[in-house]
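Weekly sync notes, structure subgroup
Attendees: PM, AL, DS (notes)

Item 1: joint prediction request from the bench team. They want all two components modeled as one assembly rather than separately. Inputs as received:
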Amino acid sequence: MSLAKPAMRGLLGKRLRFHLPIAFALSLVAAAAFKYGVTGPRKQAYADFYKQYDTTKEFNNMRDAGVFESVRTTGE
Amino acid sequence: MLATRALSLVGKRAISTSICVRGEHGVAKVDDYALPAYFDRRENPLPDVQFVTELSAVQKSLKEKEKGSWATLSNEEKIALYRISFKQSFAEMNEGTKEWKSVIAGMFFFIGMTGLVVLWQRKFVYGPVPPTFESEWKEKEVQRMLDMRINPVEGFSAKWDYENKEWKK
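Output from the run, pasted for the record:
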């Protein structure tokens, strides 16, 4: 029974050469996925919301609901 | 006076661990734990002593044969020589036990016991919850949050349909 001599040197280098490119690629993928899946849609949602935002109307609605402390409801 | 007595005591013990004849005292007894020991350890692959200390006649002759050329040794003889020097091979000493089953069982048991303790506490130790948990209070709370337009872009109020006064489908 004569087995081949196992690798004695360069073990860390071999591991790094294999795993570092994969790690790099996966981190890039993660960053891209977050950018296009989370931050992009969120920015768009905020842009769309404020495109049709009527400040005065919302203010009057909130005031009638009675949530303000320094502005009285209309009709008082 | 006390110090010299203490020193002489230390001197006696130091000499007795290395077997030597000292005056009329004879050879001091050497305890087993003081001698080099054999143990199977992954991080210490070559222990200080062989595993088998008293060799049988067959093993003695094998050791003599080992002093010659190793090419003449058969595979069984090589394995026998290995087993003289070592108790377990690396594969044998590294294999896992079935201990994890007991560990998981113990974990579940203690989590269950903790659950029982928590249930008992809720019933017998803690007082009633605050009034803010009642349904009427919660309804008023939700209405006020919608009035204040909490998180109107992506969150709470974004899910409420203000025209039809109902939750968005």
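Discussion: The longest strand of chain B covers residues 160-161.
Action: AL to compare against the crosslinking data before next sync.
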